[in-house]
Design brief:
alpha+beta, YlxR_dom, Hypothetical Cytosolic Protein, Chain: A, 24% strand, binds zinc ion, two-stranded antiparallel sheet, 4-stranded mixed β-sheet
């Protein structure tokens, strides 16, 4: 009777860094860590870069394509944890991307 437990036997689940729910990867948006030199200080700053085609190299984090989950991730420092970096991860570009492509209003694509 131990066949087919989806929780145990699905190796490909990912955790949304916003709401912390697990999903199959095709439901989630992949995000990679970008770095930008900060001219005002000597350190680099980090940026969450949307990777809808899942082609960018590097460590990825996963998130629902919703404004709410991006906001949650920001408040809970989900990207910092997901990418294992110190310091802030800027989500400006990701927020714009999600606002344009969000799943929250279903229906006008495909
Ligand atoms: Zn989520």
């Amino acid at each position: 009777m131990s066949d087919r437990s989806p929780d145990l036997l699905t190796p490909s689940l990912r955790t949304c860094v916003g709401c912390r729910r697990t999903e199959r990867p095709e439901v989630l948006l992949r995000v990679v860590l970008g770095t930008q030199a900060d001219p005002d200080s000597d350190r680099e700053t980090y940026e969450a870069v949307p990777d809808p085609r899942r082609r960018l190299p590097g460590r990825g984090a996963w998130i629902h394509r919703t404004v709410r989950c991006v906001g949650d991730a920001e408040r809970r420092q989900g990207f910092r944890r997901g990418f294992r970096v110190r310091g802030q991860v800027d989500t400006h570009r990701l927020q714009l991307f999600v606002a344009e492509t969000t799943d929250e209003r279903a229906g006008d694509r495909s």
